[in-house]
Design goal:
Elements: H1 3-11, E1 30-33, E2 39-43, E3 47-52, E4 57-62, E5 73-76, E6 86-93, E7 96-99, E8 103-108, E9 111-118, E10 123-131, E11 135-145, E12 151-158, E13 168-170, E14 174-175, E15 181-189, H2 192-201, E16 220-228, E17 233-237, E18 242-247, E19 254-262, H3 265-296, E20 299-301, H4 305-312, H5 314-320, H6 341-345, H7 349-353, H8 357-369, E21 378-381, E22 389-392, H9 399-412, H10 416-433, E23 461-463, H11 464-484, H12 487-508, E24 509-510, E25 515-516, E26 519-521, E27 527-528, H13 543-546, H14 549-562, E28 564-565, E29 568-569, E30 588-589, H15 594-604, H16 607-621, E31 630-631, H17 650-664, E32 667-670, E33 673-676, E34 684-691, E35 694-701, E36 706-712, E37 715-716, E38 730-739, E39 747-751, E40 755-761, E41 767-773, E42 777-782, E43 788-791, E44 794-796, E45 799-801, E46 806-811, E47 816-823
Helix pairs in contact: 4-16, 5-17, 8-9, 9-10, 9-11, 10-11, 11-12, 14-15, 15-17
């Protein structure tokens, strides 16, 4: 370095660490100056990494075939200081080393792309960190090298960054195992006493008469780690344990070094050979796939660039969590969890709305094939290959699988998969029957929270959370049983649904509080005075048939008074004995309940709370965070997400997407098509929304449950807020403008589980429709006065609420086309 260059370097300011300065004018978040965040996390499948604001790695994990009861984080840096170097990426310019700095930094779910210029050396570089399923790829593109100086990639590593644990050991870095690079082997063995304790839990029942564990996974296993150069990689060791790995010289072009993880030498070596040849190709393919998927998935215009970016990045974020070598398996977070059942199975609409149909099919197969013979669908899985069920779901909660299967059929229109997987869905149904009482309620501890005994469950429980899942699941089973020709299951499912509709509200509704209780004692029927925001796990519109709008409005009022907080909704009111009962989940905001909360608020017309949900979502995404939970043990705000930059919950990430579509856009998908309802008043546009063979472009605005304008491809639809299925083909443009002003004629508000094939209002003001359904379906309609409802010419009785002018009647559909007429 010349004297002039040294002076230029001395005069240069230190890197500026401007935090949370991202811009969102494009879908991909960008920081013009610096890294832009306190930290961000990225995932590639089995690997995950957290990167600090100064560019250093502070967490690096890998899930291989090693014991799940030892820490999955293998290397740790420091989140506050750059002193610790955990594979710190650097560039050597003519013998002088530089840490990479950050300008014009794009943040992807799988890594970053940034620029670093050294004007005094005439050098400008584009550097990346890209995560693959099993590897971190550090790549450099030479954009300028005016003086054709020799360049090298270099990595600085401190030995104390290795995350040791009892039972964990490792070798020194060894050369010669791979063609070009250095290899460390990690041995993980659970200590004998710990293993004995774990084995004692197997097949033992816990506090709520549910298994503590069915399997504990592996007792021991190895991890092979290789740091690979393109052709050569030199290592310089020091007495302090500081190591420098330096790649070969280059002056132009594109170059990549790889940190690879494997579970065996046999797995490592061929993969290392492949990556040494194709690493940069994989990097470019990753970015191209991201751009391609964004171009094909739904696009959102909400008037809020931050929120639009948050929604658009949900599908590619989910894709980075998919374990590429285990079909149908996905990690539950970017940094910290392995495979969890409900994280993958709940909110399946997102896969189907974003083109991940093949993955959805794989999920159905994975959870069927891994199910325990006695206990059924898995909730937590081991790290065996293939994974095994460690903890199963409660039986009534296993209906999540049936709901997923149903959603696959309604979104794709492909019901052949129903027939293929129906036997397993039937098995879930039959396994649950022993736990369903004479009132139709499923008994057993709640699927969530993890420790239901901390909110009053004893093992003699009827959980509202579980039963909300059960009802939706059995409605789905009923439809699929008809398609499968299973009359016995059809009839049994129908009977249980009718009993649940009769008894659900009376079982759980606390008249004094005007809200639902968390659970009741299954032996005495006594309600337990805890009031969860997650009372109903809203996954299908069938819940509107179980709980009427007036009760949902009351819920909205209770939640506004007792659950609302600055960053979302409390799991329980602060005065509730269950609040923070476990010192963890029950003192946190969870996206789990957002679909239920926002649906209630939309029905109640609480635009202020819907807007507050958008604002809270913005706050998280400005720090590129999809939350699992957000701690609210104190009344005042903490100032930062619990894990800034984390994509912590596969389920939570999906919930953000579906909460917007259901609670804000007011869209409801079922076997019969799409229904519109109350939602966010501000103008919203959604394009490229797939549904079966249609691509929908939606324009939505206004408040209220009625439509002042509902146009389908420019033609007005009168008399129904459900779009006839015959209109949902090809490119479809729908304009829905809501109003609170009621029409003079009857209107179908909902008919979930059945198709409307034709609808209109005659000159006398009578509503007429042609419908089809395999199963009985609840018709909810508006009429200024009590109306007569005719089904195939015969009058049928139903309910009518004069205060809301809403009627409800069960149409006795049974695989038939029928006519209905609603006369004023």
């Amino acid at each position: 370095m010349s004297k002039q260059q040294k002076h230029a370097l001395l005069d240069k300011n230190s890197p500026t660490f401007t935090l949370n300065n991202l811009r969102f004018d494009e879908v991909t978040p960008v920081s013009d100056s610096g890294f832009g965040l306190i930290q961000n996390t990225y995932s590639g499948g089995r690997v995950g990494v957290a990167v600090n604001f100064f560019g250093g790695i502070n967490r690096l994990l890998y899930y291989g075939t090693s014991p799940m009861h030892l820490p999955n984080v293998l290397f740790k840096g420091d989140s506050t200081t750059a002193y610790q170097r955990c594979f710190r990426a650097q560039v050597v310019v003519n013998g002088d080393p530089y840490n990479f700095e950050f300008t014009d930094t794009s943040h992807y779910p799988f890594g970053y792309k940034s620029h670093f210029a050294i004007p005094e050396r005439g050098v400008e570089l584009r550097h990346r960190l890209t995560l693959l399923n099993d590897a971190l790829v550090f790549s450099v593109e030479v954009l300028r090298n005016d003086h054709k100086l020799p360049l090298h990639q270099r990595f600085e590593y401190h030995d104390h960054c290795f995350n040791g644990a009892p039972g964990r050991s490792h070798t020194d870095w060894e050369e010669g195992v791979t063609a070009s690079g250095w290899v460390m082997t990690v041995k993980n063995v659970i200590p004998a006493e710990k293993w004995k304790q774990l084995q004692n839990e197997v097949n033992q029942l816990g506090a709520c008469n549910f298994p503590l564990a069915l399997h504990q996974g592996l007792k021991e296993g190895s991890i092979w780690i290789a740091l690979l150069g393109e052709h050569s990689l030199a290592m310089k060791n020091t007495l302090s344990g500081r190591k420098y790995f330096t790649g070969e010289e280059f002056r132009r072009g594109e170059h990549a070094h790889v940190l690879l993880f494997a579970s065996s030498r046999e797995e490592l070596i061929p993969r290392a050979m492949e990556l040494q040849k194709k690493a940069f190709t994989f990097v470019k393919e990753k970015e191209q796939d991201y751009d391609r998927r964004l171009g094909k998935t739904p696009q959102f215009q909400t008037g809020d660039d931050v929120f639009d970016s948050m929604l658009a990045n949900v599908p590619p974020t989910l894709k980075t969590l998919v374990v590429q070598d285990v079909r149908g398996a996905a990690r539950a977070s970017s940094l910290g969890y392995w495979v969890w059942g409900w994280d993958t199975l709940a909110g399946a609409d997102v896969y189907l709305l974003s083109g991940q149909v093949d993955f959805a099919r794989d999920v159905l197969q994975f959870y069927r094939d891994t199910a325990d013979a006695k206990w059924g669908v898995g909730h937590q899985f081991t790290t065996d290959h293939p994974p095994r069920v460690r903890i199963p779901m409660a039986f009534s909660a296993q209906f999540i699988y049936a709901i997923f299967l149903y959603q696959y059929g309604i979104h794709t229109g492909d019901r052949s998969l129903w027939r293929e997987f129906y036997p397993f869905a039937k098995q879930i149904f039959q396994s649950s029957l022993n736990a369903i009482n004479e009132r139709g309620m499923g008994e057993g501890p709640a699927l969530w929270p993890d420790y239901p005994d901390t909110c009053g469950h004893t093992g003699s429980d009827i959980s509202i959370f579980n039963n909300s899942i059960q009802y939706q699941g059995i409605r789905c089973i009923e439809e699929m049983a008809v398609v499968a020709g299973d009359q016995q299951v059809t009839e049994k499912a129908r009977q249980i649904c009718r009993r649940m509709e009769q008894n659900f509200v009376s079982t759980f509704w606390d008249e004094k509080k005007g809200y639902f209780v968390d659970s009741v004692n299954s032996k005495t029927g006594k309600q337990r005075p805890s009031y969860p925001a997650h009372a109903l796990l809203w996954m299908t519109p069938f819940l509107s048939d179980l709980v009427g709008n007036e009760k949902l409005k009351a819920c909205a009022s209770f939640m506004a008074d007792n659950h609302l907080s600055p960053r979302g909704f409390l799991p329980y009111p602060r005065w509730d004995s269950s609040f923070d009962g476990d010192g963890n989940q029950l003192g946190q905001i969870w996206p789990t309940h957002d679909m239920f909360v926002t649906r209630c608020q939309a029905i109640a017309g609480r635009q202020d709370i819907l807007e507050a949900w958008i604002k809270s979502s913005d706050w998280y995404w400005k720090q590129l965070t999809y939350i699992e939970g957000y701690s609210v043990q104190t009344v005042n705000d903490s100032g930062t997400p619990d894990c800034a930059g984390y994509k912590l919950s596969f389920f939570g990430t999906k919930t953000t997407y579906m909460t917007f579509l259901t609670g804000c856009a007011g869209l409801h998908f079922d076997v019969g098509g799409i229904t519109f309802s109350e939602g966010l008043a501000r103008p919203l546009k959604i394009t490229q929304l797939p549904f079966r063979k249609a691509a929908l472009n939606l324009s939505l605005k206004g408040r209220g449950k009625f439509a002042s304008k509902l146009l389908v491809n420019g033609k007005p639809l009168v008399g129904s807020l459900k779009i006839p299925i015959t209109l949902l083909k090809g490119k479809v443009t729908i304009v829905h403008e809501r109003t609170e002003k009621a029409p003079s004629y009857p209107v179908i508000l909902s008919l979930f589980g059945a198709e409307i094939r034709k609808v209109g209002v005659d000159k006398k003001g009578c509503l007429q429709a042609v419908v089809f359904g395999n199963t009985p379906a609840w018709l909810r309609y508006y009429s200024r006065e009590r109306a007569k409802v005719h089904f195939n010419g015969c009058e049928i009785n139903g309910e009518y609420d004069a205060s809301t002018c809403e009627g409800k009647v069960l149409l006795p559909l049974s695989s038939e086309v029928a006519t209905i007429r609603v006369e004023k």
